[in-house]
Amino acid sequence: MIDVQVQTERFDSGAALDALAQTGAGAVASFIGIVRADGDVAYPDRRVTALELEQYPAMTEAALRSISEAATERFSLTGAIIIHRIGRLEAGEPIVLAAAAAPHRADALDACAYLIDRLKTGAPFWKKQHFADGSAKWVEAKGSDDARAAGWE
Fold first, then answer.
1. Distance (Å, whole) CA 114 – CA 5
2. Spatial distance between the Cα atoms of 27 and 24, rounded to a whole number of angstroms
3. How many CA atoms lie within 13 A of 150 on its CB side?
4. Minimum mean pLDDT among 70-74, 75-79, 84-88, 117-121: which range?
5. What pTM does this model have?
6. In angstroms, what CA-CA distances link 145 with 29, 42, 46, 130?
7. How distant, in Å, are the alpha carbons of 60, 80, 133 from that of 116?
8. Which residues pair with 34 in a beta bridge?
9. Cα(54)–Cα(36) distance, rounded to whole angstroms?
10. Cβ–Cβ contacts within 10 Å for residue 56, how many?
């Protein structure tokens, strides 16, 4: 079972994890990403208040499905779910759920890490941070994300 969703509305992580538990798995591992209110203590007006995500639908869903299929094969999963939100999300809101189900915990945990590491660099999302002072800026790719994703090759 592979389930990939890109949506504006909040997701129900409990329902998603319940669906994975029904795949005959012995373990389900999950990661939920939250929009962080990052900021600089020296500049309180530069605190992130929201994150805006854009995507190219056909490309994004195909990339997420490909990542899920690769994880399913690599870790012998009984199921994988990626739900990623788009649009404007306020600080503190959930942005992504990546979850994996496998016969054993090690594969479920490793697959969950693989899913999130690969989607951070392999899915075409564009992110814009909005700050408390009213300014905004596009988020640039991080070398640390590339390094984590490369570690799976």
1. 18
2. 9
3. 6
4. 117-121
5. 0.91
6. 20, 26, 23, 21
7. 14, 11, 31
8. 94
9. 18
10. 12
Q: How many residues does the chain have?
A: 153
User: Over the stretch 36-73, which tens digit does the pLDDT of each residue have?
Assistant: 887 655 556 678 999 999 998 889 999 999 999 999 99
Q: Which residues of 83-117 are buried (b: 16+ CB within 10 A; e: fewer)?
A: bbbbeebebeeebbbbbbbbbeeebbbbbbbbbbb
Helix axes 105-122, 57-74, angle to 10 degrees: 150
Q: What is the residue extent of each domain of the chain?
A: 2-150
What's the longest Cα–Cα distance across the chain? 51
Closest C-alpha to 150, from 141, 125, 138 = 141
- pLDDT class of 152 with cuts at 50, 70, 90: confident
CATH code of 2-150, in short, is: 3.90.1170.40
Tell me how far CA of residue 47 lies from CA of 33, 36, 124, in angstroms. 18, 9, 25
Q: How far apart are CA 77 and CA 80, in angstroms?
A: 7
- Are 146 and 65 within 8 A, CB to CB? no
